[in-house]
Amino acid sequence: MPFDFLRRKKEPAPAARPQREAVPPRPTPTGTPVPFDGVTEEWRLVGQMYLDTRLSDALNRREALAIADVSWAPIDGSASFSPVPGLKSVDPYDFIVVLADESSKGKMSEEERAAQLAQRVAHEVALEAPPLRIMGTVHLAPGTAPEALLERTNEMFVPVVGGVAYVGERPVSEPQVDAILVNRFYLRGVKETGQGTSSMSAARSGAKPAATTHSKPASATVKRKNNPPPGGAKSSAGRPKRGGLGPRA
Prior knowledge:
This protein is mainly beta. It has helices at 55-60, 110-118, 199-205; strands spanning 32-39, 43-51, 65-74, 82-83, 89-90, 97-100, 121-129, 132-140, 157-167, 170-171, 179-183, 189-192, 221-223.
């Protein structure tokens, strides 16, 4: 399938026969099949994804992923889920968010996960990734402000824990999801919504980590300005177009 298969066609096809699009080889299913739940600009997809590592690591490879037993539905709730038997792979660039549950952690134990978070600082945030709004907690290195999420890095997906994703006022994620993996290329605004302590201090006290203060007021929303998506291509709504995301590292 072409890369833009998840976008509804808004213009009729030209009368002349179009050139055949180059389609990368379909990935061979390897690894363990785990449930996946992802949201694009227009669709919510659920099914099985084959993983040989954590879901976040697999997405951050920026390579097509093998999937199976997929169903999809419009994110506006206008129709129910229907099967898509021909959909066997998906490009991480197409997802705005991917919802991660316990099965997507790979072989990392709870102790290893706690140790990984112990050196980070928790920030309660509201993220704008049109048409989605995501609210929850991100864990960042000490001295890193939440607005750094708008910068381009090798980490394409950032986890938001204890969060909910919304389209308008309607939630599109379940409260019990372990984390919401947010595609930073779609981020258009970051707002810190609270104040708090480091994950290490909270862990020692037994309290739930809260957000960390920084020099900007908590009510300030930082917008993406001079950091367009890789390749610079945008849709009419200002969001990155498929195929215009530049080189894949």
